[in-house]
Amino acid sequence: MSEYQYESVTPELLEALKAAAPGHVTYGDEVNEDFERDEMPIYGKVMPQVVVEATSTEEVAAVMKLCNEHHVPVTPRGAGTGLVGGAVPIEGGVLISTAKMNKILSYDTENMVVRVQAGVLLNQLADDAAKQGFLYPPDPGEKFATLGGNVSTNAGGMRAVKYGTTRDYVRAMTVVLPTGEILHLGASVSKSSSGYSLLNLMVGSEGTLGIVTELTLKLIPMPKEVVTLVVLFESLDDCISTVPKLMRSGLQPQALEFMEREIVRLSESYLERSTFPQTYQGSEINAYLLVTFDGDDEEQLSGMIERASEVVLDAGALDVLVADTAQMKKDAWAARSSFLEAIEANTKLLDECDVVVPVNEIAHFLTFVKSIAQDYTFEVKSFGHAGDGNLHIYTCSSDMELEEFRKQVDNFMEKVYAKATELGGQISGEHGIGHGKLPYLEKVAGPVSMRLMKGIKEVFDPNMILNPGKVCYKL
Amino acid sequence: MSEYQYESVTPELLEALKAAAPGHVTYGDEVNEDFERDEMPIYGKVMPQVVVEATSTEEVAAVMKLCNEHHVPVTPRGAGTGLVGGAVPIEGGVLISTAKMNKILSYDTENMVVRVQAGVLLNQLADDAAKQGFLYPPDPGEKFATLGGNVSTNAGGMRAVKYGTTRDYVRAMTVVLPTGEILHLGASVSKSSSGYSLLNLMVGSEGTLGIVTELTLKLIPMPKEVVTLVVLFESLDDCISTVPKLMRSGLQPQALEFMEREIVRLSESYLERSTFPQTYQGSEINAYLLVTFDGDDEEQLSGMIERASEVVLDAGALDVLVADTAQMKKDAWAARSSFLEAIEANTKLLDECDVVVPVNEIAHFLTFVKSIAQDYTFEVKSFGHAGDGNLHIYTCSSDMELEEFRKQVDNFMEKVYAKATELGGQISGEHGIGHGKLPYLEKVAGPVSMRLMKGIKEVFDPNMILNPGKVCYKL
What confidence tens digit (pLDDT) does each residue in B262-309 have? Predict the structure, then answer.
């Protein structure tokens, strides 16, 4: 039994919740089934007793305060696009959705920041900022995630190789603590050395230390020109060993993705469109680099293309294709962006991890993964962000029994995580821990780190009611 | 009386400390007087009972463990160049200096990181990295600070406007906890979403949560070309209002400093060299922007100079001077870099703050500071990082009594901090809180943030012995 005592929502508390968030509370049979899980159903489905679709910081705070007083567990949720069970209400209780807090509040064009509610979707901000001449650089594959969710997992994405992860764009936030207190952290300015960085602690804490309700995010001027190169390789080894050379060149690609033959074909077949060549002058193409550069003018980009081509051809590439029209860029990136969808469409049971390894260890690591994959019944598919070593490894089966799949995946993941750690990596680059990856984090982070994390959790959440059993302690 | 009980170093403990760090322990009269204070003597001078000049993580850990067991306070110290009393051993006890842990351990050129001991000086790494073709971007004014100290205050500096602060370059660290446990945080990789970011919590915690002993820092390829522009203005208002325009242009200056007439003359007189023009076609020059751009080739930089000149001349600059020879760049930056030294040489009593305000509020803020400065006996001198709104405001007197100076400065600083906060700023951009700025942080951060910070401190340091009375709680 858990060391924590949680209470259920009583009829009296339900009435109090309805009064705190009038018109935004559903309960029992009324609750939409979407709220029982995130995008990775293998991490469980549990219905919350009550759902509050909050529309303001004050509503979130009032609900949180009531639940804290009554020791009722609360699970925060954005768009539910997570992959580690972080938004699954594993103890039932109340689920607070921020999805309806979806207003872009204001731009400060002189200081180049935007203030948004936490439920604004990534693509909603990206499109709107573009109209103002700005780029919001973080670019995770899932464009329908909320920005609050992105902050909670420190989401990375394609452009992290040049522009960094979500953490680097969070200037300030409003957060509701597990006690119901409202806290403003940070400022619109870029520098701070004003006490412990509670802001940075909150980023990546997966809704366990507070519920982010508002964000001030850094923007950059929209680069004027963008070009994508498709680089063809006969072998994965050549492809991967090109990456550190490109990074050392000083060229600063905006994105740098590697793709293996098999997953490219799967995605093309899913999209019913052939985008990438399969052979080059009689040689089979087994690996691709997809490289994007941005810059101020065509001339600068021409220079970059030329220098990049030299680097990759010297490193063993077969050829370089330049996607310089809008349609060609769109097609190339559409194929890359559909990997997860293509995998999902072709499999019944799915699990994944998103380890990070040093960029010069990617080939070594993938060779290891392929060699052990043979010992399991499921199929293994992988792709990833070559520029920062963040790899996505999928285990897929359409015919295994769930229990056997889980058992084998657990065994496989342990080996994968151990290898990534041995190579000096991290167990998650951008998806987080949730409750699905907690046992692995415990092994890798060790007891001292886990003790400190749990201690921090207790400081923020004395009753341990906010997103219980996630990230840093088991129930 | 303090709520905390601290013990003195007994003869028995002294023997145990000597055994733990043989040859590296001094005590009583042997202790070098430098260890009683940092660079800002107004924040107190207290001699430690014992100094340990540690040479390894293991020595730090052994000393820390003994002190924790005996409830003896420990103050960590790098080069002692701090400005807020952070390294003053206000409770006596043991001071652990990391200055002798000054080895650059290894470069990983493929992943572009360097591993160093925490006592390596900033200029030592900068010079060494340059020989390998790399730039370590953080560039605080004080080049003789240790990297451990830079990490502890999240030091910023001149190049933060393009490259960010120290936080952005810390990939991994070895840290000795107040309990004496050794913890490794982070990895050489750039992305992580693997539990609470203890690494980011440690950055900027000013040696209160642990003693950093080793760091893995991100490097970037050395930019091939660098050019500095000196932009002349008749008024400070025109000068400052140019800044957001330059930032919006997408040109990304590496550094962007503003300087007022008076401090430039002071610095030139201190250096006995005249560098900047004082008039332009009959107009008096009252403010300067010092702008540095870096890039890949001369052609790209020529384009940048041209575009930047257009922007600043449109915004009201009188003229733009291009410092494109090594000597001209050196002279221009030498004048800027000597501001603090020039002030120190000309004053007996000195205090300062390093608030941050939004870049479009700099002029507004400085006008406020000048207007209230008239109410005080001391002189006020200011300069700062225009690109990120981080301003350095100095209060200087050579004839006031200490007590009166302190009283007036306290009154002045309260108003300055309140104004910066009102404008959406932060009370320290890069110097930190130490114990000198603690009362101001309490006012600005508020009781909830202070409670959380102190709670975190207790999690890491149950006996509250590491750097007591700094950052987040008074003794």
Answer: 999 999 999 998 889 999 999 999 999 999 999 888 888 999 999 999
pLDDT attached to residue A2:
63
**pLDDT in the model for residue B2:** 63
E strand map for A308-397 = 319-323, 349-353, 379-385, 390-397
A:B CB pairs within 8 Å:
253
Q: Find the closest chain A residue to B177 by CA distance.
A: A448
What is the distance of C-alpha A426 from the center of its chain?
14
Residues from chain B contacting residue A156 (CB–CB below 8 Å): 191, 193
Q: Is B183 on the interface with A (CB under 8 A)?
A: yes
Beta bridge pairs of residue B321: B230
A154 touches chain B (CB under 8 A): yes
CA B437/CA B387 separation, integer angstroms: 24
Identity of the amino acid at A362: I
Q: How far off is chain B from A283, nearest CA to CA, in Å?
A: 29
Does residue B116 belong to the interface with chain A, where contact is any CB pair within 8 Å? no
ipTM of the complex: 0.96
Alpha-carbon distance B87 to nearest alpha carbon in chain A (angstroms): 15
What are phi and psi for residue A244, nearest 5 degrees?
Answer: -60, -30
Of the candidates A221, A385, A428, which has its C-beta nearest B193's C-beta? A428
Residues of chain A contacting B170 with CB distance shorter than 8 Å: none
Span between the terminal Cα atoms of chain B, in Å: 8
Q: Which residues of A121-158 are buried (b: 16+ CB within 10 A; e: fewer)?
A: bbebbbebbeeeebbbbbbbbbeebbbbbbbbbbbbbb
CA distances in angstroms from A379 to A41, A192, A346, A427, B140, listed in the order given: 18, 47, 11, 21, 51
The residue written with tokens 């639940």 in the block is A67
Query: To 5 degrees, how large is the angle CA A249–CA A251–CA A253?
Result: 120
**Tens-place pLDDT, residues B51-64:** 999 999 999 999 99
b/e burial code for range A305-340 (CB count within 10 A of at least 16 → b): bebbbebbeebebbbbbebbeeebeebbbebbbbbb
Average pLDDT over residues A7-25: 98
Whole-number Å distance between alpha carbons of A475 and A93: 15
Q: Which helix (H) or strand (E) holds B283?
A: strand B283-284
pTM, full prediction: 0.96
B453 in A contact zone (CB under 8 Å): yes
Average pLDDT over residues A349-371: 94
Q: How far apart are CA B95 and CA B204, in angstroms?
A: 19
Residue with tokens 């600063």: A252
- Taking an 8 Å cut-off on Cβ atoms, the answer to whether B192 and A426 are in contact is yes
d(CA B135, CA B128): 9
Taking CB atoms and an 8 Å cutoff, what residues of chain A touch B110?
A: 244, 248, 358-360
C-alpha distances out from residue B304 to A305, B120, B159, Å: 20, 35, 17
**Is A452 within 8 Å of B459 when comparing Cβ atoms?**
yes
CA distance A90 to A236: 41
